[in-house]
Amino acid sequence: MSRRAFASPADREELRKKRLRLAVIAVIGAAVIFTALWYTLENPFSQTFGTTVTQVPLQQKVVALTFDDGPNPPYTDRIVEYLHSQHVVATFFVVGMAVAAHPDIVRKEVAYDDALGNHTWDHAHLVLERSAHIEREIAQTDAIIFRTTGVHSRIFRPPFGARDFAVLKVAHRMGYTVVMWSVPLPGDWKHPAPALISRRVLKYVSDGSIIVLHDGNRGRGGNRESTVAATQLIVTALKHDGYRFVTVPELLAMGYGKGKRQPLGEPYE
Ligand SMILES: [Zn+2]
After folding, report:
1. Cα 53 to Cα 87: distance, rounded to the nearest angstrom
2. Which end of the chain is more exposed for a tag (fewer CB within 10 A), N or C?
């Protein structure tokens, strides 16, 4: 027979409360640790592991529209053609394996003066990878971008926004500026109503903002009907407000070029 069998009801109540307190402390502790981890690894504004670009310091009505996780026909094609019809340029952070599968649309992005960014070969969570693997992800993607379009990209966005010392060190060593975003992710990949995506974005746009939408699902297709429609609402509203659209390299040059201090320490041409 255990000793507990002799415990009085008051003792048992005391024990129950103690366990409850411990459980609450454990849950709060886990939440704090999770939040701290998210902040340092994935929050776009965290500079814990090194410098990244979020909002470019400018007092001009310019914004950079960026699209991650493509190319992804027919949605990327529709976005690219729409932007071109509106004389608007954007930046596409492409996934290498999707570029290999759909090279024509990437060539069209370049032909229409859109900029390309490197978003790894297969949308890997780089925090989980060794430096050699991180380097391979970026280098293979650069190679397919160059083979497809004849241009090299020097901007990099880590999948999930996730980075640590190793990710930033490798990217910087390879000559990349690491570009995050300043407008909170509008969750367009969950197919909300386009008007809702647009409202979520417009609420946070200001001078020098970087907006992220998703024209693909981690380089693996995906329905992006909502994103296509939201792009049209966002472009229309921002034009109406007097904003001008530039690519990320143009935005960086405006904010950090011509001898101004800039995030990587190298002149950005
Ligand atoms: Zn992504």
Report:
1. 25
2. N
User: Which active-site residues does the annotation give?
Assistant: 68, 214
pLDDT tens, position by position, 159-218: 999 888 899 999 999 999 999 999 999 999 999 999 999 999 999 999 999 999 999 999
pTM: predicted TM-score of the whole model, two decimal places: 0.86
Helix segments in the chain, DSSP class H = 9-41, 75-85, 96-101, 103-111, 131-149, 165-173, 194-202, 225-240, 248-256
Looking at every residue in the chain, the average pLDDT score rounds to: 91
Strand pairing partners for 155?
A: 177
pLDDT in tens, 247-261: 999 999 898 765 554
CA of 218 to the centre of ligand 1 (A): 5
Domain edges within the chain:
9-41, 62-256
CA of 158 to the centre of ligand 1 (A): 7
Q: Is the peptide bond before 159 cis (omega within 30 degrees of 0)?
A: no
Distance (Å) from CA 54 to ligand 1 centroid: 16
Please give the CATH superfamily to which domain 62-256 belongs: Glycoside hydrolase/deacetylase (3.20.20.370)
| Paired sense of beta strands 177-178 and 115-118, if any | unpaired
User: pLDDT tens digits for 3-53?
Assistant: 556 678 889 999 999 999 999 999 999 999 888 887 777 788 777 777 888
Ligand 1 centroid–CA 160 distance in Å is: 6
Distance 118 CA to ligand 1 centre (A): 10
3-state helix, strand, coil in the chain (%, to 5): 50, 10, 40
Q: Which helix (H) or strand (E) holds 116?
A: strand 115-118
